[in-house]
Amino acid sequence: MATTPSRRRVLQSAISGVALTLVPIGFTAEGAEAGASPRTASTTGHLDPGAADWVYLPVQVPPGVNRISVSYSYSKPAVAAGELTNSCDIGVFDERGVELGGAGFRGWSGGFRTEFEIAADHATPGYLPGPIRPGLWHIILGPYKVSPVGLDYSVTVTLGFGPDPAPFQPAYPPQAVPGSGQRWYRGDSHLHTVYSDGKRLPEQVAAGARAAGLNFIMTTDHNTSSSHGVWGPLAGPDLLIVTGEEITTRNGHVLALGIPPGQFVDWRYRANEDVFAHIADSVRRSGGIVVPAHPYCPYVGCRWKFGYADADAVEVWNGPWTIDDEITVETWDAMLVSYGRHGGRWLPAVGNSDAHSEPQVIGTPQTVVLADTLSKDALLAGITAGRSYLAESSAVQLDLTATADRRTSGMGARLPADPATQVTVSFTVAGVPNGVTRLITDEGQTVQMSLPAGGSGTLAWTTTPQLSAYVRGEVRHPLADGTPGNGTAMGTTPQLGPMAALTNPVWLGHPR
Questions:
Q1: CA terminus-to-terminus distance, the chain
Q2: 3-state secondary structure of 230
Q3: What pLDDT shows up at residue 14?
């Protein structure tokens, strides 16, 4: 009888197939007493195209070290049009090892920095402060783009000696606002700071969220939890700050939202390895949710290849509206059609800014969630239930309901009714001047209406569960020339501009 490997063995075997370990840099214990002068060692090497995803440089750290500093560089040769140029990320694991999902993670800066330092009382953004314990550390290089002529690299490690200073004390943000009640809460759950590849400080992100009229944000720096410990003083009764991470793999990016402050989620795997389901499960066991981000992003390593079986929601709108978002919404709608006709499980939609720096606008778009309280748990429950809509700004307000037999259901909910029962759908919009509202079902668009210059109006429509498995609403801007659109009947193709807002569906009829 075959046996199933343990989660630990599965993760270990997955990382072993994509990693290369280099000859160690050795620092001897001799002369490493407190007060000794810093010691430096360097190494160079070359990686050919098709290099391992992860290249580990072991560093033997002796006792008495209170600071480790690392710098690196790599070649950037000219390449022909259409060929990849070199790009190489960097991070570090401490003496606890490089096991996938293990405790050894001490920081990651991707390709955003060429050097970093770690000590007990401080660390370069992206890295975790703490003591420099003796043992075998590992610098990790991530050559995710290698040119046809290869990549030459150079790494320099400097160790400082002496007693540890007073340790850094993290100030984690509270994950609930006491006394808050049920209402619609606006938030942005995909944001970056200087702790990964953003240019905004955490205090600038918090200020931007308040300026955008948001009630919550979720922190999602790439592949590191290092910012979690600085958000505490920036939160308040008017702004909940939920901790998370953008897991940036070689086959797509995914948001781990609502993980405990200080928790790190690993990213060192591809879609063809038996790993992601275990990672997603670990995120949910810790109280978080898993949301694939910008699934059709055209950049190297960005496009989502893991499928949606292990997702809790999907980011269908990322930043200013583009063709990538258009395709994502169409893919998401096809998943709704499949659920409506065959049953199973459906994925709610979310929208986030993915803002990194100026002029990217925090809260464009945003997800508006009906939650019992302003708390991490209540917001995640609202998101995964689909009790939410997406809007380009806090000026936009939506309401979508379906009513039959004196029962009314809203976004994310089901209106139980027999197949031939008359259902009245009401879609109310405010804040989109001259916008075009439309209702969409598993049969496609059914009806649309242009809004006046004031931006408010209600679109009403009648259907039955046998004709419509679900109804969802969209609000579009008119085309740049002012044309509002030219389709009102099911089966026509309206000419519509960028998205201004969209809802999660209301499900009609009895579940399959």
A1: 36
A2: helix
A3: 40
Cα-based distances in Å from 264 to 49, 71, 256, 295, 350: 30, 23, 10, 22, 23
CA atoms within 13 Å, Cβ hemisphere of 500: 25
Backbone angles phi, psi at 234, to 5 degrees: -95, -10
C-alpha span between 260 and 206 (Å, rounded) = 19
Q: Where are the beta strands (DSSP E) in 319-396?
A: 349-352, 366-371, 388-391
Nearest to 127 by CA among 165, 102, 91, 177: 91
The length of the chain, given as a count of residues? 512
Nearest-CA neighbor of 198 among 174, 173, 226, 161?
A: 226
DSSP assignment letter at 19:
E
CB 262 within 8 A of CB 281: no
Q: How far apart are CA 236 and CA 232, in angstroms?
A: 9
Is the model more confident about 48 or about 11? 48
pLDDT of the residue at 219: 98
| DSSP string of 301-337, one letter each residue | TTS--S-STT-S-EEEEESS--HHHHHHHHHHHHHHH
pLDDT at 149 over 60: yes
Confidence label for 32 from pLDDT (cuts 50, 70 and 90)? low
Farthest CA pair distance, the chain: 86
Three-state SS at 205: helix
Which backbone phi and psi does 125 adopt, to 5 degrees?
-50, 135
Which domains are delineated in the chain?
7-161 (2.60.120.1050), 170-394 (3.20.20.140), 395-512 (2.60.40)
CA distances from 314 to 341, 346, 432, 504 (A): 20, 10, 24, 11
* Structure-token pair, residue 15: 């990382």
Model confidence band, residue 124 (pLDDT cutoffs 50, 70, 90) = very high
What one-letter code names the amino acid at 379?
L
Q: How far, in whole angstroms, is CA 167 from its chain's centroid?
A: 30
CB-based contact 265:105 (threshold 8 Å): no
Report the chain's mean pLDDT, rounded to a whole number: 93
Contact predicate 163/34, CB 8 Å: yes
In three-state form (DSSP H/G/I as H, E/B as E, the rest C), the secondary structure along 149-169 is CCEEEEEEEEEEECCCCCCCC
Give one word for 101, left, alpha or beta, with left for phi > 0 and alpha for psi -120 to 50.
left
The DSSP result for 393-409, as a single string, is STT-EEEEEEEETTEEE
Dihedral over alpha carbons 297, 302, 304, 306 (to 10 degrees): 180
Supply the DSSP string of 457-503, one letter for each residue.
EEEEEEE-TTT-SEEEEEEEPPPTTS---S--STT------SEEEEE
**Of residues 232, 229, 185, 192, the one with CA closest to residue 208:** 192
Per-residue pLDDT tens over the stretch 53-65? 999 999 999 999 9
